[in-house]
């Protein structure tokens, strides 16, 4: 009998999960649940046995209890991070013991699940971890970055890429901080697209742009008839991120009563729509960002300390542009290429003198300011070469985020012949635009920052043609 290659069935290798717990009933329950997911399991009653198995065998996931006869689950998490760094490990915590879960996440745990076990939550956790283990790119810390790339080869950007690759392997909440205009949302998207949730949705929410009275309904949804105007059930943004990532931009702008509700989403992984009597389980990863100092807000009583520690399990700092000015040429070429494609023209070149101006400028507005400067230069440039006379820079830089004192805006060209009124209008226009960008185009807040009335700001906007 001739056996062809096509007739030979190669047995598929099923993923193997190591379960570490000293309770026989729980071991049996988890093993049965995972076997129905087409997974093989091995069990260990203590830390010593778990370490021996991990040294001698290959696993795709380790699921460990926190309290074990000869040690702590945290000890095992730390050991795995040191000796089996590519192996996802999740912890089983006692109900309400969120502090232990947060410590485990800080040590590098993939995720946690609380007792009594919700088998639906457990299956989702294990599924995400197995998808992470199946990836071929996990051979290096930075190889698993997917999606749009961060531009620049400076040491600060290389360090950021490495951190993104590391945190993408976890389900822990991540807080991204940095000055306005540095690209915090791009970093959040890269964390999402580089992790096991990349097939799920990425829902970005600007916490400062939602009216306070609508915030609970927008985030958590509502039931029909729960308030005037609720003519149908509405799914909230948190539920819309099911199986994916919820990115809370400008999280510092959340009012205190919403911070309490968000805390429950992070701790218990449950949400209650407005008008609903029961909570529903949600499976989302929380990423947050702000340009403000959350620790200072906590000290001032404007941000809850418990929420701060829950969303700040892992910190990612996005460097300012002045910390990586060696990336300006590459950034400029990329931005001009994108602008040229949008305007259906060939991207101009930047002269060496113009590059020198850009490299020496501190960029308080970071990459966003660089984009604005280059877009203006592209408009002024007519012969395919951007020169210093096309580069409009602020004569003096002020601390990032400080927009209360306007700084003169001067061209690098000779402005001796320019009318004084035109220069003053440029100063005023740039200060107003900066205030509007800072407040996400909330004119009331921008007027307050600028020290003028709303009516006066509206008049100046119209007079200067900003809208």
Describe the structure.
A hairpin with a 2-residue loop joins β4 (67-68) and β5. α2 runs parallel beside α3 (73-83), α3 runs parallel beside α4 (98-107) and α16 (420-438) crosses α17 (443-450). The strands form seven sheets. Strands 2-1-3-6-7 form a five-stranded parallel β-sheet, with helices on both faces. The chain has a five-stranded parallel β-sheet with strand order 9-12-15-8-16. The protein has a two-stranded antiparallel sheet with strand order 4-5. By secondary structure, the chain is α/β, with parallel strands linked by helices. It is globular. It is built from 18 helices and 20 strands. The chain folds into four domains: 12-134, Rossmann fold, CATH 3.40.50; 147-317, P-loop containing nucleotide triphosphate hydrolases (Rossmann fold); 321-394, Helicase, Ruva Protein, domain 3 (Orthogonal Bundle); 403-467, Arc Repressor Mutant, subunit A (Orthogonal Bundle), CATH 1.10.10.60.
Task: Summarize the SSE layout with pairings.
Layout: E1 16-20, H1 24-35, E2 40-44, H2 47-56, E3 61-65, E4 67-68, E5 71-72, H3 73-83, E6 89-93, H4 98-107, E7 111-114, H5 119-133, H6 155-167, E8 174-177, H7 184-193, E9 202-206, H8 212-220, E10 221-222, E11 234-235, H9 237-240, E12 245-249, H10 256-268, E13 270-271, E14 280-281, E15 285-290, H11 294-299, H12 305-311, E16 314-317, H13 328-343, E17 349-350, H14 352-360, H15 366-380, E18 385-386, E19 392-394, E20 409-411, H16 420-438, H17 443-450, H18 454-464
Parallel strand pairs: 1-2, 1-3, 3-6, 6-7, 8-15, 8-16, 9-12, 12-15, 17-18
Antiparallel strand pairs: 4-5, 10-11, 13-14, 19-20
């Amino acid at each position: 009998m001739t056996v062809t290659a096509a007739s030979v069935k190669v047995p598929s290798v099923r993923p193997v999960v190591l379960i570490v717990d000293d309770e026989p009933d729980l071991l049996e329950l988890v093993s049965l649940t995972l076997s129905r997911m087409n997974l093989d399991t091995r069990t260990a009653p203590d830390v010593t046995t778990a370490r021996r198995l991990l040294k001698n065998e290959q696993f795709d996931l380790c699921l460990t209890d926190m309290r074990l006869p000869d040690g702590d689950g945290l000890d095992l998490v730390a050991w795995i991070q040191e000796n089996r760094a590519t192996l996802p490990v999740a912890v089983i915590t006692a109900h309400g013991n969120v502090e232990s879960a947060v410590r485990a996440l800080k040590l590098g745990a993939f995720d946690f699940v609380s007792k009594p076990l919700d088998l639906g939550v457990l299956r989702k956790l294990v599924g995400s971890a197995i998808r992470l283990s199946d990836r071929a790119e996990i051979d290096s810390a930075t190889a698993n970055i997917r999606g749009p790339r961060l531009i620049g080869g400076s040491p600060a950007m290389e360090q950021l890429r490495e951190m993104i690759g590391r945190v993408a392997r976890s389900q822990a909440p991540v807080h991204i901080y940095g000055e306005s205009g540095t690209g915090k949302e791009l970093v959040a998207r890269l964390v999402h697209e580089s992790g096991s949730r990349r097939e799920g949705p990425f829902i970005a929410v600007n916490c400062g742009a939602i009216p306070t009275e609508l915030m609970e309904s927008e985030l958590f949804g509502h039931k029909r008839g729960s308030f005037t105007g609720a003519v149908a059930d509405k799914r909230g943004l948190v539920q819309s991120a099911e199986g994916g990532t919820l990115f809370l931009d400008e999280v510092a702008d959340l009012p205190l009563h919403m911070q309490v509700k968000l805390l429950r989403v992070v701790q218990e992984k449950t949400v209650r729509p407005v008008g609903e009597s029961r909570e529903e389980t949600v499976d989302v990863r929380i990423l947050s960002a702000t340009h403000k100092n959350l620790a200072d807000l906590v000290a001032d009583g404007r941000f809850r300390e418990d929420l701060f520690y829950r969303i700040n399990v892992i910190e990612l700092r996005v460097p300012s542009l002045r910390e990586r000015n060696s990336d300006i040429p590459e950034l400029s070429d990329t931005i001009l290429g994108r602008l040229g494609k949008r305007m259906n023209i060939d991207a101009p070149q930047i002269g060496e003198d113009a590059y020198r101006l850009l490299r020496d400028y501190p960029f308080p507005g970071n990459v966003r300011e660089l984009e604005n400067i280059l877009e203006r230069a592209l408009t002024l440039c007519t012969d395919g070469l951007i020169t210093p006379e096309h580069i409009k820079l602020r004569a003096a830089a002020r601390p990032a985020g400080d927009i209360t004192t306007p700084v003169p805006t001067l061209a690098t060209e000779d402005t001796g012949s320019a009318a004084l009124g035109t220069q003053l209008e440029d100063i005023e226009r740039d200060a107003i635009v900066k205030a509007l960008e800072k407040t996400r185009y909330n004119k009331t807040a921008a007027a307050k920052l600028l020290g003028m009335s709303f009516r006066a700001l509206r008049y100046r906007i119209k007079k200067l043609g900003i809208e």
